[in-house]
Amino acid sequence: VGVAFLLGVGCSSTTSMPSEQAALELGTGLTEVGDLLRAYTETTGRAPTKPADVLRNEALYPRGVQAIRSGDVKVIWGVKMPPVGEGGTEIIAFEKKVETEGGGVLLTNGEVKKMTPDEFKAAPKVKK
Predict the structure, then answer these.
(1) What letter does residue 102 receive in the DSSP assignment?
(2) What is the spatial distance between Cα 92 and Cα 107, in angstroms, rounded to a whole number?
(3) Could you please report the per-residue DSSP string of 27-95?
(4) Can you tell me the distance from the alpha carbon of 82 to that of 122, in angstroms, rounded to the nearest whole number?
(5) Could you say which of 28, 58, 82, 124 would form a disulfide bridge with 87 (CB–CB 3.0 to 4.6 Å)?
(6) Is pLDDT larger for residue 83 or for residue 24?
(7) Residue 40 and residue 57: Cα distance in Å, rounded?
């Protein structure tokens, strides 16, 4: 329901569509990265340690896989992704440009947030 609403909003104005579309893509990509990490953790009982651990789920999470494969999203490998509704506010994955330009981050509780470079530097990251 939320995605359909966002898509509708993005299509309502041609002048703002690119930035809204980029925000939607970012959120979807980071959300799917979280789903990939969580699926691996739940299936194996282990933390994914490298991209190959999660990339085999491309059919289920194509945007997440593409975000990792392209390098647009960086993952802190070697950490278990908690079940939905659990976890904290530590960063487990982030858009690579967040360090210099600001961008999106994925928290261990599954939330996707936008941060400035300064907010990113100050925010807690997961520890291996």
Answers:
(1) -
(2) 6
(3) HHHHHHHHHHHHHHHHHHSS---SHHHHHTTTTT-HHHHHHHHHTSEEE--S-PPPPTT---S-EEEEE
(4) 22
(5) 82
(6) 83
(7) 9
